[in-house]
């Protein structure tokens, strides 16, 4: 009984079959996955959370005049977005008043937008006259809106950064000097130093 | 050859792992792009409620028992220990006091090691939780003096996180809160308007006592 050539060939092939071991592949693969997961977990715990605050902030008809209080001073961010709408419903005299305020505010925002480097380095020492002017503008706008029976009220929102209370206290002290501040609502919120302000994307007033 | 080497398992594992990595990448991308902060916009309101004072520093919160503090301060004042704006020991959780014609009584918090940590708010029957639970929402609100100094490497004021946590806890219990930032140069002080117009302690809330606006990175609101 002699085996056929085909059977012999098959037996020969089976003995010397090429075997692929998946162990090195799985080992490397799991190692890479482990390292990636570790980096992911580590970065989520250790890296500071970056949050961008919007430039135009409102809640209902209340519009925030934002003042960010930092160790080096303040960054003032007046609202401009809804002033054009307010302008459309008031008489000519008030329209002119709003126009003056609007232009000043847009200049202020433009100055901030053109600031080179981080916007958080644009803080300046709070100036008493500037604060008094800002309070007067807010009061004027609120009174114009009230007169026109238009739902618009500006309030001051203080964002307090770490070590930023000095500038805040100074502004609150100045606010006691003027009757303009009596009817202005105040809000304040603690902010972390890695919560940065975004101007480029949101700060442009809609026209 | 086709029957001997099967690539099925290899292809399966590779495609699975690539798929998982893509999912991770997409999740990370979404997470980065739409990172939002629920910015509370609480506004100060005049109120008939009386303030219960707290100091928040170094991730700890101290409930101020004003009766005890004022009694101790009065004792120091009558004995001459508080003259000429001198700092005196209030014998109350490491607080030092100072009496000033403009600021009333100032409270300097130097040693906070005895104060309860804000994590205790998560523990039932903790002293801190009891002191907050004692507040009557119809008669009182919580007013926090929050230290804004930073510890090494921290991106937050030393009292900010504790204050946020306490505010959240109190909000759930319908108790209003107010706060002001303080530091070692301008410490917590309690006075009334006969001293200064700044001596006003108001709760902060929006409308009916709550509310917030979600500001996204893209300026949308939710």
Please specify the SSE layout and strand pairing.
The complex is a heterodimer of chains A (207) and B (222).
Chain A: H1 5-15, H2 23-46, E1 51-54, E2 58-59, E3 62-70, E4 73-77, H3 83-88, H4 92-113, H5 128-147, E5 153-160, H6 165-175, E6 186-190, E7 195-198
Chain B: H1 8-33, E1 37-40, E2 43-44, E3 50-57, E4 60-63, H2 66-79, E5 88-89, E6 95-100, E7 104-109, H3 127-133, E8 140-147, H4 160-172, E9 177-182, E10 188-190, E11 204-205, E12 212-215
Parallel strand pairs in B: 3-8, 8-9
Antiparallel strand pairs in B: 1-12, 2-11, 3-4, 5-6, 6-7, 7-10
Jot down its keywords.
A: 207 residues; alpha/beta; two-stranded parallel ribbon; 6 helices; 45% helix; B: 222 residues; alpha+beta; 2 domains; 4-stranded mixed beta sheet; 4-stranded antiparallel beta sheet; 4 helices; 12 strands; 25% strand; elongated
Short description:
The complex is a heterodimer of chains A (207) and B (222). By secondary structure, chain A is an alpha/beta fold.
Report the sheet with the most strands of chain B, covering strand number, pairing sense and barrel closure.
Answer: 4 strands, mixed
Number of helices of chain B: 4
- Name the shape of chain A in a single word: elongated
**Alpha plus pi helix count of chain A:** 6
Describe this structure in words.
The complex is a heterodimer of chains A (about 210) and B (about 220). With about 210 residues, chain A is an alpha/beta fold. Chain A has two domains: about 40 residues; about 150 residues, no CATH class. Chain A contains six helices and seven strands. The longest helix of chain A is centred in the N-terminal third of the chain and has 24 residues. Chain A starts with a helix and ends in a 9-residue tail after the last strand. The C terminus of chain A is likely disordered. By secondary structure, chain B is α+β, with helices and mostly antiparallel strands. Chain B is about 25% helix and about 25% strand. In chain B, the strands form four sheets. Chain B has a four-stranded mixed beta sheet, covered by helices on one side. In chain B, strands 5-6-7-10 form a four-stranded antiparallel beta sheet, with helices on one face. The longest helix of chain B has 26 residues. The interface between A and B is large, with 52 and 50 residues.
């Amino acid at each position: 009984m002699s085996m056929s050539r085909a059977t012999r060939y098959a037996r020969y092939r089976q003995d010397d079959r090429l075997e692929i071991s998946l162990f090195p592949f799985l080992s490397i693969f799991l190692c890479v996955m482990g390292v990636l997961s570790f980096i992911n977990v580590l970065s989520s715990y250790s890296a500071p959370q970056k949050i961008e605050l919007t430039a135009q902030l409102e809640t209902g008809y209340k519009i925030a005049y934002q003042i960010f209080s930092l160790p080096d001073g303040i960054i003032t961010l007046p609202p401009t977005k809804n002033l054009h709408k307010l302008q459309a419903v008031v008489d000519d005299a008030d329209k002119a008043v709003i126009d003056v305020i609007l232009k000043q505010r847009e200049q202020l925002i433009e100055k901030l937008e053109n600031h080179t480097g981080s916007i958080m380095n644009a803080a300046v020492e709070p100036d008493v006259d500037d604060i008094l002017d800002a309070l007067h503008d807010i009061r004027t706008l609120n009174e114009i809106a009230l007169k026109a029976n238009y739902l618009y009220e500006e309030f001051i929102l203080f964002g307090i950064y770490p070590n930023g209370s000095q500038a805040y206290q100074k502004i609150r002290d100045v606010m006691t000097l003027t009757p303009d501040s009596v009817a202005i609502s105040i809000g304040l919120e603690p902010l972390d130093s890695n919560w940065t302000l975004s101007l480029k994307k949101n700060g442009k007033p809609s026209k | 050859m086709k029957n001997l080497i099967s690539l099925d398992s290899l292809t399966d594992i590779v495609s699975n792992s690539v798929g998982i990595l893509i999912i991770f990448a997409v999740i990370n991308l979404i997470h980065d792009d739409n990172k939002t902060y629920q910015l509370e916009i609480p506004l100060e309101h005049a109120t008939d409620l009386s303030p219960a004072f707290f100091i928040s520093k170094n991730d700890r919160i101290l409930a101020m028992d004003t009766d005890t503090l004022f009694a101790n301060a009065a004792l120091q004042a009558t004995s001459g220990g508080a003259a000429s704006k001198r700092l005196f020991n209030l014998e109350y959780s490491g607080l030092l006091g100072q009496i000033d014609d403009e600021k009333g009584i100032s409270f300097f918090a130097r040693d906070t090691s005895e104060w309860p940590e804000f994590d205790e708010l998560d523990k039932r029957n903790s002293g801190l939780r009891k002191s907050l639970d004692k507040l009557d929402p119809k008669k009182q609100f919580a007013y926090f003096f929050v230290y804004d100094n930073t510890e090494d490497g921290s991106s937050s004021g030393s009292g900010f996180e504790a204050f946020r946590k306490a505010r959240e806890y109190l909000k759930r219990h319908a108790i209003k809160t107010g706060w002001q930032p303080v530091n070692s140069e301008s410490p917590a002080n309690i006075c009334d308007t006969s001293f200064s117009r700044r001596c006003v302690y108001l709760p902060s809330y929006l409308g009916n006592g709550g509310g917030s606006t979600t500001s996204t990175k893209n300026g949308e609101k939710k």
